[in-house]
Hints:
342 residues, alpha/beta, Trna Endonuclease, Chain: A, domain 1, five-stranded mixed β-sheet, 9 helices, 5 strands, 77% helix
Amino acid sequence: MPEQLSLTLTLIFLGFVALYLLIRRQLQQIFQSRDDDTLIEWLKTTQGDLNQLQQSLTQTLNTSNQNVTNTLQQSYQQLHQRLDNAAKVISELKNETGKFSEIGRSMQDLQDFLNSPKLRGNLGETVLNDLLSQILPKQAFSLQHRFQSGDIVDAAIKTQSGIIPIDSKFPMENFTKMNQSDSSKERDQYHRQFINDVKKHIRAISTKYIRTEEGTLDFALMYIPSETIYYDIAATSPEIQDYSQAKRVLPVSPSTFYAFLRTILVSFEGQRIAQEAQLILKSLRDIQKTSHEFADKLSILQKHITNANSNMTAISSDFHKLQTKIDSTSSLPAPEEKLLSD
Length: 342
């Protein structure tokens, strides 16, 4: 719209300039000739040209004004529509912003709620229980394992070599404060406090849960519920790694703990296969023993059958001889009746 208006004004200005130059040139020619008739004729012609030019300019201006008016109306309508759309979008954004603010407050409330060490410990135990239940058979682990001292570890894996204690109450308050702080000095301070907290926790795990006299192995697991914290310790806190090795406490994250459990499961499968192999071998030995006994009895039975067959043959032969003798008596003469009467 501004470009069209500027073009129209430029054309009008150029028209006036051209008309001015034309009139000036013709006036100079008339004054030089000093012919009154020519001057009068020129004035009449000029008057007619001016009238035509005025009409043309008026028509051009009217057309330009109409175009400008139409353009302004269209632009106004488009602008009005865009403003309405913008108002709707802004209204929707306000509503969404309100929802996000509400979600933000809810998340903050949830975060404050989860900052409770006891609650976070319970959540850690729940996650730990889920991991153990998904991978290991139920008889291979226990929760809230109690020692003779009265100390209770969150979980314990039962292996053929011994019990593996697992603690899930990891101290992460100062780590959270370190990430939320904007001051490098405060971050360094919270980081030192975090290292001290972790060392203290490692020492407590080693003291309370590694009890070989009660059937545990000579190490324990410290479950860290966050991959970020686990890798931050591995990257920036080598003293924690050295201290945990000295205290025989192995830090594990969710992913490394999963791999550890898979390894334990493989060992359980190996034990199960070995036990089943022993049972199969025992069954084969029992079958072998039974087969030998059956062979002995079969041999004895065969001897008895052989003896019985021999006896049967002898008896049959004797019976045949006896029958022959009995049959031979039928050829003897019958005694006389007299002799019988005497």
